[in-house]
User: Fold these one by one.
Assistant:
Number 1:
Amino acid sequence: MINLNREILRDKIHACWVGKNIGGTMGTPYEGRQQINDIQGFSTPAGVVLPNDDLDLQLVWLHAMEKYGPYSVDAKILGECWMNYIPPEWNEYGIGKNNMRSGLMPPLSGEYMNTWKHSNGAWIRTEVWACMAPAAPDAAIRYAREDACVDHGAGEGTYAAIFVAAMESAAFVISDIRALINIGLSKIPADCRMARSIKLLLDCYDNGIDWKDARNQLVEDSADLGWFEAPANVAFSMLGMLYGGGDFKRSMILAINCGDDTDCTGATLGALWGIMYGTAGIPEDWASYIGDGITTVAVNKGSLYGTPTTCTELTNRVYNMIEVTLKANHVGHVRISDDPCSADEGDINYFSNGAFAKILCDKPGCSYEYDFIWGKGEVRYEGDPVIAPGASVNVTIFFRNQFPDPKHLRLRWLLPDGFAVSGGRQDLYLPHINMHADGTASATFTITAGEYVDSVNRPVLEVIAQGRPTAGYLPVVLLG
């Protein structure tokens, strides 16, 4: 078991948000600069907290968890929250929202025509998931992936969110940055660009290369991705942690001095540091300089009422969600009590198990999933979700049983005028889950358009499990 002392846990969560505000406020004035900076601290007046979408979006996710609960929150719910509560159209934010307006579900919304899917919008908003799932990295990365895929699909931005969320969750019981980095690496594909940048940084650090040279190597290695991309910027945050030598101020300044998405690199470093060391690890003069307030820029407060206005309020509301979040994710190794903190070595070693993370990372971007209660259905496109008059597209529908009994499925297509479907079948056997069967089945269909296509076309597959009252409906969205 891992025991988390209540007061220490609450203190770490509060320090997370204070550190987030420090880094975001300090880094924002330099955001987007493509050279090495030379900052020495704040360039803003005392008591001023600069607004930052890094924290803003997490206020919306808190609302989603409080309203729908950790059993239900997924990419579809978060996507609907995007449409109502988050006004900006910046980069991947705008692309993801535009795709959803066209009817494309997450993660397809974050994958299709998204030139920013490797960018920074998701790893900067992971703390809420980690703080609701302390010392439970697999639970934290589950929500981080559901969140990230809405506007990053299966891109490096999603891998970055998984990497950072795993570190932050583990940091509630681990304060060794190398151990945390290794845990993060265990959750993402070894050959992805996110892992490549972190490994390059570690090589530079281990070989005694100066931080500026290490920064320049990271920039050069990511040149083909361009600016404002996740691999280099996450590495800049980790550069500050490694080269800062255990000094918060030096670490923060180094990360921001690397340039690029400086509010993000500083804010994430501050949040991670707060989780690792609590409020005692954040210098009092910087904490008091920034204060406890929260200032927003990316939340539609005309539609979303009651978001936290202070780090203290945010801490209390996040803390109140922890136990139900752990229960919803079947986390049995974490206990919260008034007893001193303690951790079993076996539980900590399991933090680096990558089996569940591989399932998350293997999910394709050109897909989406629907829950029928008795089972799940997933639509996977062979190419882009686009169809022309007289043309055809192939889709594969995967079904997963969620109950112990096998099922016979009856499949029926409901088609737009002029559309036709071939291949597949009208009935499908869905086995139950046991040592010999994984409870899955699939069918591939060819959808052919007629002489006319609309701007948005929705062939719908009706799925009925014999003997079950709930019918499933899977729309296959095709842009004309």
Number 2:
Amino acid sequence: MAFCKTIVHVVQPGDTFYRLAQRYQTTVPEIILRNPGVNPYNLQVGTRLSICNGQQNNTSFEDEMDLNNDMRKAWMQYIYWLRMFMTSLFENLEDMDAVEARLMKTPEDIASVMDKFYPRAQIVQLMQLMEEHTDMGNQIMRMMKENDMQAVERLERQWYQNAEKIASLLSSLNTEYSYEEILRELSRHMDMTKRQMMAAQNMEHDEAVRIFDESENQILELADYLTKGLMNQFYRS
């Protein structure tokens, strides 16, 4: 017998029961039955709807692997280009601007993995927060290179506040995501990045590579956690 998993959808501008039924592969009557008291002809932005998501009926092991591969690739591209920018900055390489430009495209790559699961407004918000996160990391490196530690401390506070916003957004979209767990993983990532920055600044190349090895494993843990949350929310009972 077919099954589905009930999810919570927060109404966004432009949402209708018909569009939501198409998106979650269910029916308008099913949505109405699960949300008594909600006027289908006058949906209010911010209303939380319970929806029986039928998408999982079409999933497969290959689908999960594809999603996990896409998620891992997006996050790995982020830390790879971050590492390359770090090297270019501290060693005054001529490719620094080009590398930074490519690094600043990685937030869009990360957000695009989740694009088919959540409203576009939330995806844009996630992309903007990741862009801020990436740019703050770049600015911290620049101030560290200039030995402006007062600016570094100020930017680091903003960096961690930004991570809190990312964790809050993701946990609000998916009940399978823990705010504390996501913030913990983002904090681990930032701590490792700061250690890499210090090693790169001091030309301690072996230490920088060792820390980067750690950061690869850590970012894969985050990617796998995000994948699992999506699979649990949208595909599994």
Number 3:
Amino acid sequence: MHYRNPILWGDYSDPDVIRVGEDFYLTSSSFTYVPGLPILHSRDLVHWEQIGYAAERLPFERYNRPAHKCGTWAPSIRWHNGQFYVYVCLPDEGLLAFTAENPAGPWECHYVKDVCGWIDPCPLFASDGTVWLVHGFAASRAGINNLLFVHRLSDDGLQVLDNGVLVYDGRLHGDVTVEGPKFYERDGMYWILCPAGGVKPGYQLALRSEKIEGPYERRVVLQQGKTGINGPHQGGWVDDPRGQHWFLHFQDVGAYGRICHLQPVNWSDGWPMMGAGGEPVSEGDTGLPSFPGSVPTSDDFLETIGIQWQWQANPCEGWYRLLKPGLRLYAAPASDLFSAGQFLSQLMQSHAFDMDVSLQLHGHAGDAAGIAMMGYTYYSLALQERHVVLRKGTAVEKGRWVPASVEESTEETRAWDRQDVLFRMRVCQGKVSFYYGSCPEILEPIGETYAMTCGGWTGARPGIFAMNLRGTWGGWADIRYVHVHAGHPDDSAG
């Protein structure tokens, strides 16, 4: 299977990957978006389908509201004795483990340890029957960010049995921001793969030892070099059924988030050298048969809400109702879109696309329903009180326990004396523009072309919403469909 990087345009931040037989499974960070910890499946490491989520909701009251930059950071996925495991730390709440016999779910949530400051956990089910965990620390919580600790776990992997051992101190090697460790065992050696140096300027380390608790030798095995792939690190190492080894990692591309690349791994002098001579490749061949997988983007809401959608907080049943076809979004109270848990969004799966949303608003005073591109600077187009209203929002994070400072302003308003409207959001080259009308063939542009921005450790996120800006429950909006077209097949708008 020939491929070109990136293999995934979606913002699958901090990916981890495993193989079970001929099947590969991937998970990634979700932060405040729920359901979280997406589970993707592939057979060629290039084409992926989403099959579920490990976390249907987060088991803390805090996440009943948006908590940008908090939530699920850098998970790991493993399979052991017929059971799948996803481990993740919420940096304020502690260590969770999710278990399932079927990777599509259902998954059971286990609260393993109440601790603040741990991040990026990964278990090792060792060949001698013992179970271990490696993790890093968040400087914003623990005051350190370049140490790795290893702990002994119970046989079922659901209890931490000791205070841990320091196995790597980046200060001794000039490494800063050592994080995202992944734990492996191969040919009698224990391995920790971890990034260092920060997201964009960083690089990938391999640490090896004859003993789980160290000491570990260090080597840089992947770095940007002369390529245009910044910060090639933070990912998972996996072999395929033929015995070839691979490293799947992310690249930060600003408003598009952290997209996934695939590197071949070759063993040289006992070390896993990645890419071509330790630098990322732009294309390659897995040698595996092509797999017909893809992540959906469009939705007619025929039977359920599509698997691609995530709320901005733990979902509330009062936010929506399935119409089959169609989706009814109730106008729940919200002071602004950044703080609205009912914002329903998905990951961009292409760098250029049109998203069309057909809706009908049955509104009360203060109700607004429409389409938006979320980020620290975000834009929304809504139907509100017989007008089409284009808004700009700006959010500034103040601290993990302090609500963000958000300001919204109106960019443009047009009269619209109908309940029905079609909105289009066009994305190209990191920018977004908006259109409205009564049918896809005839749409009017509104506003300007705006630069998209990333959000709380995420790329910009396209989505739909209904809310009441007066602090009460209002009416509702019926979403007939959301249709996403990669590229721009219809240029009649504008």
Number 4:
Amino acid sequence: MEVITKELVKSILPKRDADANKYSVGSLLCVVGSYGFAGAGVLSLRGALRSGVGFVRSVCPESIYGILSAGVPEAVFVPSKETDEGRISGESIGDIVKLSRKANSVLLGCGLGLCKDTEELVCALLNYVKAPVVLDADGINAVSSHIDVLKERKFPTVLTPHEGEMSRLTGLTSEYIRKNRQKAASEFAKEYGVTLVLKGKDTVIADESGKCFQNPTGNSGMAVAGSGDVLAGMIASFIAQGAVPFEGAISGVYLHGLSGDICKEEFSEYSLLPSDIVENIPNAIKEVIN
């Protein structure tokens, strides 16, 4: 297993033309958030924008539109019909598929909440969206009971599970996964033809051939709710800008961890927040490209 280097990430980062515009540097569609979990949407969108994507459109439940639009004024929002629990309704599937045709990548899952409508939504979008999809959090949980949809999907897919979510995907125990991280990531990525980001200490990224990279950046201060939402937004952002999914995942994971390391120096491992990680993404990028 290879270790990600600064030089590798520098070579992957999408190049910007002098005459770039908001569409030429990538369009990202995010399907995120639910009542009670608006913060996950905010953090994922901000992580994506700080990573350089030019245009972000977000589908969200009507009840949290005000929170998201105030938290991320740079994004464009499409308020959706919602369930009684405040989650995106399955009735929105057709509209979301149409919106995806304008996107270079799709982020699906952060803060969605798990219910029958979420499972229906996730499986339908994996079937019909003809763009790379980054599947995180409840997007992963929703597909765990319908795992074969990953084998049927013909377009690139990135999954970003922590060990608990990986256990639900595979049926393996969290303890086994913790002791066999490379093996678990590699075998799953090969079997289902996906890029797999197994989060945790020394995050492992595996491609559909089973090739793995290990991430050297990051620290225990990043073990806080919301950190993974930032990462998912970053990965989706780099893919929207033109990185192939495996390399977009490598770049996102490394820079996410590096931003966390920069935060640690200022705030310590005890006081680091996901919003701090977002605000230090520019510093992490500068450290890599300079």
